[in-house]
Amino acid sequence: MNYDGGPQGTVVAAPPPGTDSSTLPETAAETSAERPWPLHVLSEKLKAHIERAPAAWVEGQVIELNKRGTMCFVTLRDVDAEISLSLTVWGTVMDRLAVPLERGSRVVARLKADFWVKSGRLSMQAWDIRPVGLGDLLARIERLRQALSAEGLFSPSRKRQLPLLPHRIGLITGRDSDAKKDVLRNAKLRWPAVEFEIREVAVQGVNAVSQIRTAIAELDRSPAVDVIIIARGGGSLEDLLPFSSEELVRAVAAAGTPVVSAIGHEADHPLLDDVADLRASTPTDAAKRVVPEVTEELERIRQARAQLSRCMDQLMSRETERLAHLRSRPVLSQPAGMVSIRHDDLVRLRNRSTMAIESAVHREADRVLHLRAQVRALSPQNTLDRGYAVVQDDRGSVVREPAQAPPGSLLKIRVAGGKLSARSLDAGNEPGSPVAPAQSPQSKEQE
């Protein structure tokens, strides 16, 4: 059909089939309401475009298998997402398989799209299909393990220390699984007060990775969760493939809360074990390694208290002995002895100082007496006491020569007992003659 030049939405008939193809648009972008493509042109162009697309190898899991004659119709589902695709497999391709396909098989197939022009139906043709064996899966996991290890995600330095006594444990496990029961039962037996925050998720299949990642993120954001346990019972390699997913490994590596891996049995070793902060061989082992044994802890407390009591007793004994030893010393047994000794020293020193002072005083007193005697011996009064006299003229000058006192001169005479007045009569003896002792006052009065 085509649009004419009338009002918008008016539809006219398309050119008849015999219309010259040279007038048709070359590309879909050139088509319009006035110049449409006939339907067979679009179908042919779609077929030509799809046939130019190369074949591609894809991986999936067989969820439906239906054989009809020489044809086999298979439905593949993505191993990590809810995406399915229907395939058409020729009988010759199925005959080349050494082991017939079954539901649940993991396969890789070489697919090529095919478009049926008459019916306008798109189908996927499988030109080759190969089951994925355990060896291929293990080799793929090993390559991923080496790549992640080269990035440092498995380095021991990134491992976080588990808390000594977790208050609340985050548990990620399957719905009503034995692994959940084992963890809860053993943890409660070891430490009855432990608390759990449980996330029940799919632990296999296409939804396992996304649900486990979501549960890890929720528990990691909770400040009350001290450690996260990811637990699952045993299973085949295919069942445990979600725990080797690169997305899950990186989610565990990015978590801030310590993560414990308890997947399968001792022989199972998914990549989650390498990135987890602690690998437990089984869910029961995870409960034992995360939660301490209450009886053991009580025994340790008892031993610690006993050791502390012994240490305190030993300390008290040592200090008592030290005090007894100190008290046995003379300085502490007779503390007044120190004062007595110092008192005796003080008395002795005081006596010595007193004797020294008295001796010094006596010596100085004797010296003073000696000096006094010397002074007295040299005193004019002492000379007068021996009978000498001092004669002075009327001017007070001492008469030393007779010539100084001519006859009739008034003289003053000082004797030991006092002063006398006299008058000179005549010159006495010649110079150098001895001087007569002075007469007493009584004799002078007689003269």
Describe the structure.
This protein has 447 residues and is α/β, with parallel strands linked by helices. The protein has 5 domains: 2-37, no CATH class; 52-132, Beta Barrel (OB fold (Dihydrolipoamide Acetyltransferase, E2P)); 138-292, Rossmann fold (3-Layer(aba) Sandwich), CATH 3.40.50.261; 337-373; 379-425, no CATH class. The protein is 40% helix and 21% strand. It has 13 helices and 15 strands. It has helices spanning 39-52, 91-95, 134-151, 178-190, 208-221, 246-254, 271-275, 283-290, 294-328, 330-333, 336-377, 380-385, 441-446; strands spanning 2-3, 11-12, 56-68, 71-77, 84-90, 106-116, 121-131, 168-173, 195-200, 227-232, 259-263, 278-279, 390-393, 410-415, 418-423. The strands form 4 sheets. It has a 5-stranded mixed beta barrel. Strands 9-8-10-11-12 form a 5-stranded parallel sheet, with helices on both faces. The chain has a 3-stranded antiparallel sheet with strand order 13-14-15, with no helix packed on it. α7 (271-275) links the parallel β11 (259-263) and β12 (278-279). α4 (178-190) packs parallel to α8 (283-290) and α5 runs parallel beside α6. The longest helix is centred in the last third of the chain and has 42 residues, at 336-377. The radius of gyration is 68 Å and the shape is rod-shaped. The termini are far apart. The relative contact order is 0.06. Mean pLDDT is 83; it is low at 1-16 and 435-447.
